[in-house]
Design goal:
heterodimer; A: about 625 residues; alpha+beta; D-Maltodextrin-Binding Protein, domain 2; 5-stranded mixed β-sheet; B: about 325 residues; MetI-like fold
Chain lengths: ~625, ~325
């Protein structure tokens, strides 16, 4: 609560400071007419008791103007990151502190099973109605905990029955958890946390069968499958573009949809929410910009050309391919823009995962040997890949946290990255794989050629297939045959979940969000393609397809469970470090090269964009920098 | 004539049914379904996935029903003119198709007109002035048009427009005219956007049209009736247009039928590159996310267009070419 108090004080100080200069609490110019006409209450009545005060990145701005952007059709995630990141808590710009946002603060009990959360008093939805614990309870009890709920269930409510919500008063509620979760506030702060604070009960409940007995019949009457389809049209969940299709839906975001980005729209416009609950340090209600103005594209090159032509004010998404950076720099002066840095949360351009639980027992035994995995890493000429596929941009890196992360361990990140074919061959010989066939490939103990199928798809990341073709030639020198199978993306997923693959590859998530996304460091989800049956065993050790993992994998899991029971960040860090040490020692999967810095395009007359920010999904770039404090000069 | 059209119509009904069935079948071929694609998409965006989501989606959209049952339900709707709901956009497919169909017909119609208007005169010219410099020039341009993929041409055009004129090609209209009533200014704005897809789409189809016209006409030019007509003293221009060119047109007319759908499908890539609000990108979107109602709806519309095109070309041929008339009578 001290945090909340300090916020209130700084808000008052801000108001007071500007009161002296005579500009405090002046109305937003574009809303003045509505206020004068009595259609809208004055600013002071629209704001909560203690608005969240945003410190502008550079300067207090001027009101007005449109932010012009390029939206790829169907890319709801872009909108989620830009407009939709309004959760109870929010990340600060550095991705270090969790800052109260729609909440004012919280308390937690000693064993991390009960959280008391205080909402910011007087926050209003865009229709002027108050945002209260009733809205939160609706989200939990009627949606996320509803067995029929169609949307995703975020990580803080994977088992719905384990969470109980107890409303104390309009602005206070308690979350009671069946199992301890020391990361509860962390998970609420991540982008998925917004799921609990986007449903206006008064509006959305009219489409819910618990409140409207005709909800199902209404939906079926217009040709929809059932109430859930109509609910998605009117009050869709946090991800995906359906959330922005209904202009009537009350929102808490800085801008509300005026013309939705439908499947066939060419443009979409968002306008200012007059009830937005944030102010700048001068007490001026945010946002500064009147509108967001998207022109919608079918993934074509026109988005990039528009950005180069200076028609896009501030954007990273879908227009910032690394290969285009030189062209942007060349045209920066002509287009009147500059580039700012983004540090990706990915730690690797490609992670190669030997399936240690592969159904072929001989191959499983080979993959299970650390020396084999090390030898294959040594037989990989990373410099050739970086030079050929990534135009020389990159640095050798294993599947390990990024240098910017507090978990960075240089020895872990660079172990076995040197190219040493002789040593690799010697190690493979030492494993008893010294016999070769006529073509020069090594033979397995059962006399078959040592051959590995690697599965991937080429639709999202064409560079992966290029990489694999190079690795194939490199490993051939070590006598190991790599067969590259390019298949449909769905099939890749299906094979992984059914444990039908020998090897798969993926991008290296979890380079910065190490705790949230550790599936390359330990078996934490069915994305850990190097031991999916082990993951199934952790969920239910009698389930079909589950295999008992080795002790070190179990130890990691025990440490991770312990981490969840630890309410302090320091305690969590120490446990995560231990998990990473085991991963370093056991070397489950191999990486190629550190993902390079990315960039965003910023017009020169757009202010308050930081020179560098993290880029991730859980930290939904650029949401945490607060788009509402961006302003444009002439 | 009427009997001929009726027979054509009857066979069209059967063809239409077969087309919808094959289209539905093909959409079932790729692994996975809408539910798995949706889940893959959500997880690719970074969100955590609840494994039960796949089964909930399947159950809600009846994706687990047998193929034939789903086909019959869908086809029943199609017969009533109801294409169902797009799974991906949660919007009636009718509404999506209806909003893109006029744009598509506008763009493709103009492309067709442009192609005929330019290619036929060039074809006639290069047949009549065989092996002249003009003929060679037309041939070279024609072959370049065939050889360069249209999306590449579109990209080149976009880059030239950007780097030399500082404009970005793409879209069908400027924002200030979106949703505005039709006015002279809006027509002008659309025209300023339309020339690029029409030029690119036309260039790709034009080459073959030039070659076909030229070859057909060359066959006719040496025939005795031409010599006779010339001997009777007809002016060269009138002679050319009234007799051999008319004969040379029959193969072209009979190809109108498949020209229409092939234009729509070949222009899909161009429409994506140039960001045109037409049926092509909608179809691709539907196929990518395995939204069989959306993709199926667009395919049905394309099937109907093909059938209509075939009928038109049959009737035209009937009217144009006495040999066809004699054959069917």
């Amino acid at each position: 609560m001290t945090l909340a108090r300090s916020l209130r004080i700084s808000a008052l100080a801000g108001l007071f400071g500007l009161a002296l200069s005579g500009t405090a609490l002046s109305e937003v110019p574009s809303l003045q007419a509505q206020v004068d006409a009595g259609a809208l209450p004055p600013m002071a009545e629209r704001l909560p008791e203690s608005p969240r005060v945003i410190t502008p990145v550079e300067s207090v701005g001027k009101y007005g103007g449109d932010l012009n952007l390029a939206l790829k059709r169907g890319d709801g995630t872009h909108l989620l990151r830009l407009v939709g990141y309004e959760g109870l808590f929010s990340w600060d710009l550095e991705w270090k502190e969790m800052v109260p946002n729609l909440a004012e603060g919280y308390e937690v009990n000693a064993d991390a099973t009960e959280y008391t959360i205080h909402l910011r008093k007087g926050v209003k939805w865009s229709d002027g109605s108050p945002f209260t614990t009733a809205d939160i309870a609706f989200a939990y009890n009627d949606l996320l905990k509803n067995p029929e709920w169609l949307g995703a269930r975020p990580d803080y409510i994977t088992v719905p029955d384990d969470t109980t919500i107890e409303v104390v008063d309009d602005w206070t509620y308690k979350v009671k958890l069946a199992k301890p979760n020391g990361l509860y506030i962390f998970q609420l702060t991540n982008v998925d946390g917004t799921q609990v604070a986007i449903f206006n009960k008064a509006y959305c409940s009219q489409f819910h069968p618990a409140y409207n007995p005709n909800a199902n019949a209404d939906a079926v009457a217009i040709g929809l499958a059932d109430w859930r389809a109509l609910f998605e049209q009117k009050c869709a969940e946090m991800g995906g573009e359906p959330r922005w299709m209904n202009p009537d839906r009350p929102v808490l975001e800085a801008w509300m949809v005026e013309s939705p980005p439908t499947a066939t729209a060419e443009f979409s416009i968002f306008t200012r929410n007059p009830y937005y609950y944030k102010v700048d340090t001068g007490g001026n209600q945010l946002p500064y910009l009147d509108r967001l103005n998207f022109s919608i594209s079918n993934e074509g090159p026109d988005m990039v050309l528009r950005a180069m032509n200076g028609e896009v004010d501030f954007q990273d998404r879908n227009i910032n391919a690394l290969s285009q950076k030189p062209v942007y720099l060349e045209n920066a002066e002509k287009g009147g823009f500059h580039l700012v840095d983004e540090v990706p949360s990915n730690m690797n351009v490609m992670v190669m995962m030997f399936n240690q639980t592969v159904t072929d027992p001989v191959l499983a035994e080979i993959f299970a040997q650390k020396d084999f995995r090390v030898a294959m890493s040594l037989a990989t000429d990373r410099q050739e890949i970086i030079d050929t596929v990534y135009v020389g941009q990159g640095q050798f890196h294993q599947a390990a946290p990024r240098p910017e992360s507090k978990y960075y361990d240089e020895a872990y990140a660079t172990q076995y990255t040197e190219y040493d074919l002789d040593k690799a061959n010697a190690m493979l010989d030492g494993l008893g794989l010294d016999k070769r066939d006529d073509a020069g490939f090594r033979l397995r103990p059962d006399g078959k050629r040592l051959s590995i199928n690697v599965e991937t798809f080429d639709t999202a990341r064409p560079d992966w297939v290029d990489n694999l073709e190079l690795v194939k030639a490199q490993w051939q020198k070590a006598g190991v045959e790599l067969l590259v199978k390019v298949i449909d993306r769905n099939l890749v997923d299906e094979h992984r979940r059914a444990n039908l693959h020998q090897m798969q590859i993926w991008g290296g998530d979890g380079g910065l969000d190490v705790v949230a996304d550790p599936h390359y460091y330990m078996v934490s989800s069915d994305e850990s393609a190097w031991g999916v049956p082990w993951y199934y065993w952790f969920n239910d050790n009698s389930a079909a397809g589950a295999i008992e993992p080795p002790d070190s994998i179990k130890k990691q899991r025990a440490l991770y469970d312990q981490l969840f029971e630890t309410p302090t960040t320091e305690g969590q860090d120490a446990l995560m470090k231990q998990i990473l040490d085991i991963a370093k020692e056991d070397f489950y999967v191999m990486g190629i090269s550190l993902t390079g810095k990315s960039y965003a395009v910023v017009k020169n007359n757009v202010h308050n964009v930081p020179a560098s920010q993290p880029a991730a999904y859980t930290y939904p770039t650029p949401g945490p920098m607060q788009i509402s404090q961006i302003w444009k000069s002439e | 004539m009427i009997g001929y059209v009726v027979r054509r119509l009857l066979s069209m009904v059967l063809t239409f049914w077969a087309m919808t069935f094959v289209a539905f079948l093909i959409m079932e071929l790729p692994p996975g379904d809408f539910a798995t694609t949706r889940v893959s998409e959500v997880s690719a965006a970074g969100a955590k996935i609840d494994p039960a989501m796949v089964s909930r989606l399947r159950e809600m959209y009846h994706l687990d029903a047998p193929l034939l049952e789903r086909y019959l339900v869908w086809f029943g709707g199609v017969l009533r003119g109801d294409f169902g709901y797009s799974l991906a956009f949660n919007t009636p497919v009718n509404q999506l198709v209806a909003s893109q169909l006029p744009n598509t017909l506008l763009v493709e119609g103009l492309t067709l007109l442009f192609m005929y208007a330019v290619a036929i005169p060039i074809g006639i010219y290069s047949a009549v002035r065989k092996y002249s410099i003009g003929d060679y020039l037309a041939s070279v341009i024609g072959f370049v048009g065939v050889a360069v993929p249209s999306f590449l041409l579109a990209l080149l055009l976009m880059w030239v427009a950007y780097s030399n004129f500082g404009t970005v090609l793409g879209g069908l209209q400027s924002q200030e005219f979106a949703g505005a009533a039709l006015s002279l200014a809006k027509v002008g704005d659309i025209a300023a956007h339309l020339w690029a897809p029409v030029l690119v789409g036309g260039a790709a189809g034009m080459a073959s049209l030039i070659r076909v016209t030229r070859a057909n006409l060359l066959d006719e030019l040496d025939k005795p009736y031409v010599t006779t007509a010339r001997a009777k003293g007809l002016t060269e221009f009138r002679l050319l247009l009234k007799y051999p060119v008319r004969m040379a047109m029959s193969p072209l007319v009979s190809s109108i039928g498949w020209l229409l759908p092939s234009l729509i499908s070949s222009s899909t890539v161009v429409a994506i590159v140039l960001n045109m609000p037409t049926l092509g990108p909608l179809l691709l979107n539907g196929l990518l996310v395995q939204d069989m109602y959306l993709a199926g709806g667009v395919l049905v519309v394309m099937a109907v267009l093909t059938l209509m095109g075939t009928l038109i070309s049959d009737v035209l041929l009937f009217w144009l070419d006495p040999r066809v008339r004699m054959g069917v009578l």
